[in-house]
Amino acid sequence: MRKPEVLAPAGDMDRLRAALRFGADAVYLAGSEFGMRSAPANFTPEELREAVSLAHAQGVRVYLTCNTIPRSDEMERLPAFLAHAQEVGVDAFILTDLGVMELAREYAPKVELHISTQAGVANYAAANALHRLGASRVVLARELSLSEIAVLRERTPPELEIEAFVHGAMCMSFSGRCLLSNYLTGRDANRGDCAQPCRWKYALVEEKRPGQYMEIETAGEGSYILNSRDMCMIEHIPELIQAGVTSLKIEGRAKSAYYVSVITNAYRQAVDWCLEHPAEPVPAWMVRETEAISHRPYSTGFYFGSEPGQETVHGGYVRDCEVIAVCDGRQGSDLLLTQKNRFFRGDVADVLEPGRRPYEVPLDAIFNEDGEPLESAPHPAMRVRLRSDAPVSPGAILRKWSALEGKTE
């Protein structure tokens, strides 16, 4: 099988470092303008230069999102933005608008052009037309099945790369082209400012009885009638490769560095496993890692044609695991930890490090900075000493799995 690219999100410098540390082949991020996610910190011009330098030092490519639909009064700022991106070494732009695409070819001709999922590429004719206009990659509409992707692959030039989302949140609107946020809040989703009203809890109100909220479902918690499931394709990497997908995209620029660490590591390990063991299923521990972050119930989206990925009953998040500490290093016989969430003497930590299967370390002997024994670590960011000969590396993430896996919040 061809080795696909593992493409990770980077909403800021911490999340970029997490993606690099845990094995991404490429990252996608936004500058201070023209990206479809305004909630993350994103990258200033100087931070973008630093980000590209860090990524390239590790052989990782950087794709810059310019995928909003800009208005005419914004277009004058684009040439300088695009030229700066080329100057600092960005590898590709992710674009939606044809005018932006044309400006990119003029002001940053050395930068590759990737067509955003916002463009809704769903057939080979559209992919070929965009390739003739200079695109080296298309990010497919999320509504395609694997069989449809295979047809598109067969009828497009082999040098045209195909990118597809494999993990994370899905939009209830076609490839993200939604007006709901703009209508309800004045925040334009197509310019990076989505308020996510599809995730809100709704009830029914009859116009002559204002203030009387009637549940749409009888479950007692209302109905998240627009709320989509999250996507998870970690068990189907061989099928994605067979269909012709060359880049596996993880959603989540607005999510935490921990999310980026866990999911990038899981897909990195799973891709490498599938290439080395093509006839064997992905190991259970890699699949379980996708449960180690807060998420909505998972589905495979439209890839197998039968499930659209819309969740209309359960609107909560599933959370099976929480971070309890980060390892800062070792001093003699003690590991030095910074507490993130409360833990107790006698707990067992699940340790996440890059490039390896998570392993357990008992927290049997914990002390404060003065060497006094502790029964628990209750205070945020407190320093804790753990007496242990376990070879835990600096930066390792210590976690605790819930005794009731599958609980919702």
What do you see in this structure?
With 409 residues, the chain is an alpha/beta fold. The chain folds into 2 domains: 5-175 and 229-299, TIM Barrel (Alpha-Beta Barrel), CATH 3.20.20; 321-401, Translation factors (Elongation Factor Tu (Ef-tu), domain 3), CATH 2.40.30. Helix content is 24%, strand content 21%. The chain is built from 10 helices and 19 strands. The strands form 3 sheets. The protein has an 8-stranded parallel barrel with strand order 1-2-3-4-5-6-7-9, surrounded by 5 helices. Helix 2 links the parallel strand 2 and strand 3 (61-66). The chain starts with a strand and ends in an 8-residue tail after the last strand. Mean pLDDT is 89; it is low at 308-313.
Structural category is: alpha/beta
- Structural domains: how many: 2
CATH class of the largest domain: Alpha Beta
Radius of gyration: 23 Å
Helical fraction equals 10-25%
Average pLDDT taken over every residue: 89
What's the total helix number? Answer: 10
**CATH fold-type name of the largest domain:** TIM Barrel
Distance between the termini: 40 Å
Strand content: 15-25%
Q: At CATH's second level, what is the architecture of the largest domain?
A: Alpha-Beta Barrel
Q: Can you tell me the overall shape?
A: globular
**Strand runs, count:** 19
CATH homologous superfamily heading of the largest domain:
Ribulose bisphosphate carboxylase, large subunit, C-terminal domain
